[in-house]
Amino acid sequence: MPLTSVEKDLDQLTIAIVADFPVPLRRLWDAYLDPRQLERFWGPPTYPAKFFRHDAAVGGRSVYAMTGPEGDVHYGCWEWKSIDPLHSFEVLDWFADAAGNPNTDLPAMHADFVFDETSAGSRLTTTSRFDSLEQMQQLLDMGVLEGTREAMSQIDTVLADLASFARERGTEANILSETQVRVARLIRGTVGQVWQAHNDAALMKRWLLGPDGWSMPVCEIATNVGDSYRYEWQRDGGDERFGFTGELLESVEPYRAVTTEAMIGMNFPATLNELTLTAVDGGTLLSLVITYANAEQRDAVLATGMTDGMETSYQRLEGLLATAAA
Predict the structure, then answer these.
(1) Which residues contact 15 (CB under 8 A, 6 or more apart)?
(2) For residue 168, what pLDDT band results from cuts at 50, 70 and 90?
(3) pTM score
């Protein structure tokens, strides 16, 4: 159990939780920045969490859901107010609907996460601030403090995986809901490099090819929000060809881009693709949340071996980045 102290200050309207861990500071920091790790301990054991969005950048948002033993689902949202890498971040944490919109019937709280290196490893101090004593008492009556204790009791297991959680894995897909899948991969390169690799047509044609034996004759980038893009691939020495088109809906360089995606010449419903890039130990965590029209479409796409093709492309990208750095 990592908890060292829990202090309530009714005058300052704060709850401060201190937890110590026998792991390097970087390991603890990355556990909070990687949604795959964070959702393993953010909710209590009986209310496990899933993160549908996780932007570790000022102005970004994180949207999550905790599902109870009876199937009841409770949504929450962070709005990122500040971030000092490896030292601290501040969020506004509120109860929400599935889209992350605030539930105004329940209070929000300001949460400061401060990370410190210690002689035995690392320390996390989380300070929650409330706007009134009534709001503070309301959340205490709801069992938030007990839930936090239970949730943090799980973090030791996550942090004990010192074999570098993300670095040991290739491209992996996690089902988040009936219609959503999160694809994640650690790319050995900076956030800026990975962002450029997704926004430079000449570079994309060199790595975004899937399995060997294909070329990318058409790569039209969407530069501004509202622009359309078009990507087409062709098998070497043959006429077999396919492609995708869509619209850029949101772009926050260099960490977030949201697009629609539809297969050219097919009547399949378009997907919504949310790309997030986060700096972690060893490179950049690429997280792509894909929203499908229904579970059938989701399963059909996963069955095509989509992640295998993506893994080949990401390996090719890492090779290009390594060559550029040499």
Answers:
(1) 6, 7, 8, 9, 127, 128, 136, 145
(2) low
(3) 0.91
